[in-house]
Amino acid sequence: MRQKLAAGGHSKNHIGKRPPGRPRSEKARQAILRSTLQLLGQRGFSQLTIEDVADRAKVGKATVYRWWPNKGALIADAFANSTIRKLRFPDTGSLQTDLSRQMRQVVKIFSSRQGRILSAILAAGQTDRELIAAFRERFMWPRRRDAYAILRRGIGRGELRKRVDLDLLLDSLYGPIYMRFLIRHDRLTNDFVDRLSGLVLAGVRPQRKTSSRRSSK
Predict the structure, then answer these.
(1) Which CATH superfamily hosts domain 12-81?
(2) pTM for the full model?
């Protein structure tokens, strides 16, 4: 079901897509995104305003609203824009290696200043439906679509069972990372994600065919 959502309505809005109307400056757009992250890190979600973002980016408030319908969409886009290149999946020829390397990047981001911004987004999103919806739309679903492609590539190479539940598999891979990130009951390390990916993938590899013939006595 979630695969259909990711491939359907959630593919309409993506970072960098400009709504209809007169062309606007990419330089101004990037200034708005940078200013949003700076202010979010300094003040948190509740104290951040579109007016303050516009003032820091040296643009009019109307310019911000031409690109983003609300504060939640702006914040989600700003975070996604700052991480998109870092979270691309490699293609090494090994599904486990591709996943482990990308998951290491996730851990690196979560352990940086961007991780503190993500914490603020997720915390505020528990009571702000617009924000959490924007986070899913502009950050989570695009990453999810990329991950589906990687997993299907692994299926094509015979590294995964053909009928594996891709959503359950992704939740099993990334859920523990988010849990350690939010609950902080243990450290987020490269060794952790390497062991995690190995453990999860071991349970979804194709079963080896065993010979039906029994050795004669």
Answers:
(1) Homeodomain-like (1.10.10.60)
(2) 0.84
